[in-house]
Design brief:
heterodimer; A: six-stranded mixed β-sheet; five-stranded antiparallel β-sheet; globular; B: about 110 residues; mainly beta; about 50% strand
């Protein structure tokens, strides 16, 4: 089983729609969780950290479900500029961050 | 400006040659990482370093070597032993290892010709 697994998509949604996707992780001892955004041929950039109680940053909401070992990302009121690949990132041990292969989101006009 | 600088942005290598990718950070971060990304795949860890003069192999270290003589610098050498080196290489740093987010350089795209 992969350490971090994501639905690759693509999720193709119209502007203004809500889109949500999950990521599962294998290590129940993981402590830190993040969502990164990666644009085509660019470096990943931190979108948001994911906290146990769930957290929101503008139109983005992240949730953590430790019992089922998954995190989720929801994007409300999608914009064209939200088109990107979203990477789920989980720490496996004190030094190591493991990355999922990414979920591709395309927002169309 | 604080950040991570990778150079060069594009690199072409002939088969059988060693090449070195540069990574410098001025964020005063202790931990530094090298990842490789292939099309349609996630990032895979090559090497990491938590402190100066110490580094550890990641998941795909074969054919690569690193050094960490200064806190700011973590160069990666892709040796001729790496059989499929064409990829996008990303350097990252973080203030406290895996418990905090990592910050990435802009990447080096290596192509074997």
């Amino acid at each position: 089983r992969k350490e971090v697994e994501q639905d690759p998509g693509p999720f193709n949604v119209p502007e203004g729609a809500t889109v949500a996707f999950n990521c599962t992780y294998s290590n129940s001892a993981s402590q830190s969780f993040f969502w990164y955004r990666q644009d085509c041929r660019k470096e990943p950039k931190l979108l948001m950290s994911v906290y146990s109680s769930g957290n929101e940053d503008g139109r983005f909401t992240a949730q953590l479900n430790r019992a089922s070992q998954y995190i989720s990302l929801l994007i409300r009121d999608s914009k064209l500029s939200d088109s990107a690949t979203y990477l789920c990132v989980v720490n496996q041990r004190d030094y190591k961050l493991s990355f999922g292969a990414g979920t591709t989101v395309t927002v169309r006009a | 400006d604080g950040g991570i600088t990778q150079s060069p942005k594009y690199l072409f290598r002939k088969e059988g040659q060693n090449v070195t990718l540069s990574c410098e950070q001025n964020l005063n971060h202790d931990a530094m990482y090298w990842y490789r990304q292939d099309p349609g795949q996630g990032l895979r860890l090559i090497y990491y370093s938590q402190i100066v003069n110490d580094f550890q192999k990641g998941d795909i270290a074969e054919g690569y070597s690193v050094s960490r003589e200064k806190k700011e610098s973590f160069p990666l050498t892709v040796t001729s032993a790496q059989k499929n080196p064409t990829a996008f290489y990303l350097c990252a740093s973080s203030p406290a290892g895996g418990y905090t987010e990592a910050f990435f350089g802009q990447g080096t795209r290596l192509t074997v010709v």
